[in-house]
Hints:
This protein is of the alpha+beta class. It is built from 3 helices and 4 strands; from the N terminus they run αβααβββ. The protein is 37% helix and 13% strand. A hairpin with a 2-residue loop joins β2 (58-61) and β3. It is globular and about 35 Å long.
Amino acid sequence: xxxxxxxxxxxxxxxxxxxxxxxxxxxxxxxxxxxxxxxxxxxxxxxxxxxxxxxxxxxxxxxxxxxxxxxxxxxxxxxxxxxxxxx
Length: 87
């Protein structure tokens, strides 16, 4: 699975969720149907970091937004769409 494919899979899954919902990165990996989905997790976390740097998603842990730098992430994370400021 290429990085652009992972980006697309993340954003499509988030678009199908209710506003404010988040997903677990493993949902993307498991969605590939691969028996070896765990091996995809580093690439998915890397793609999530790139999308976070672009401002296209947020990375959450315990409900708090983490920095876009994947090196700062430890333990379970969730991915969500950024909230839009009220106009």
